[in-house]
Write a structure and sequence with these properties.
The chain is α/β, with parallel strands linked by helices and 253 residues long. The two termini are 22 Å apart.
């Protein structure tokens, strides 16, 4: 059976991270907080949370970006013997009530990556929503399929070893590009993808660290690299489609 822990990348989310941690603990999961070079106020809150039962703090000396923090958390989880990691953001956007659904799907299919498929309310910024649609189109091109329903939602359960293999052999990105690239690489490698509908909200007082210019540059560079990767894998991807093999067909609601 899978052995789970939660990994939460944190960068200056001192107002929201406490509620996220309490939600994780309420579902009986050990929690690994990854402090991605936060400022003093957030560092103090993380020190407080690290004093709670089942909560551990991994502090990075400099900001590595979301992907870098998640990668560090995955390696730390593997070193502690965990086979599966629940990734959830620290800003409170994800509905922690869906944690049991993600864990149950992972127990039923331990080799799969269990992915949140966001259901947005009216709080979602229009510009971000349009950007997601563009990313969906590009990801479908990179995989020659519609298997990846949403590549940007950071609410997932990963089997640790397949993701570590990607981190060791590929360059999935260290910032906001990580969530997208790692799913494309998992799909290329034949990892099954299962989907859970989950509510995502954008609090009016929420803190976003998405940098419009720089992060869009990283994401554009990532899409270019994935497109080249698709071309090099084209014969295999086409053969897989012709045989009807689709690692992303699994669906849970």
């Amino acid at each position: 059976m899978p052995d789970f822990c939660a990994v939460v990348p944190v960068f200056n989310h001192e107002r929201a991270v406490g509620g996220v941690v309490e939600s994780i603990r309420a579902h009986g999961l050990p929690c690994l907080l990854v402090d991605d070079g936060s400022g003093p106020a957030c560092a103090r809150e993380l020190d407080r949370l690290a004093g709670l039962d089942g909560v551990e703090l991994l502090r990075l000396p400099v900001n590595r970006g979301k992907g870098g923090a998640v990668g560090a958390g995955l390696r730390a989880a593997a070193a502690r013997g965990y086979s599966h990691v629940l990734q959830i953001d620290a800003d409170g956007q994800h509905d922690a009530a869906d944690i049991p659904s993600l864990l149950a799907a992972s127990r039923a299919d331990p080799g799969a990556a269990i992915c949140g498929r966001p259901v947005f309310d009216s709080s979602v910024p229009r510009l971000r929503l349009y950007g997601r649609y563009l990313t969906h189109l590009l990801v479908w091109l990179h995989t020659l399929s519609f298997d990846i329903h949403d590549s940007m939602c950071g609410f997932r359960v990963y089997p640790v070893n397949p993701v570590l293999e990607i981190l060791d052999t590929e360059r999935p990105g260290s910032r906001m590009d990580f969530d997208i690239a790692v799913l494309v690489h998992l799909h290329w490698r034949g990892t099954r993808l299962r989907w859970i509908d989950t509510a995502v909200r954008y609090p009016a007082d929420g803190v976003s660290h998405f940098r419009l210019g720089l992060d869009n540059l990283f994401i554009s560079r990532m899409h270019a690299a994935l497109f080249v990767g698709m071309l090099t894998r084209l014969p295999g991807l086409l053969a897989r489609r012709m045989r009807g093999i689709s690692p992303g067909e699994g669906r849970t609601s």
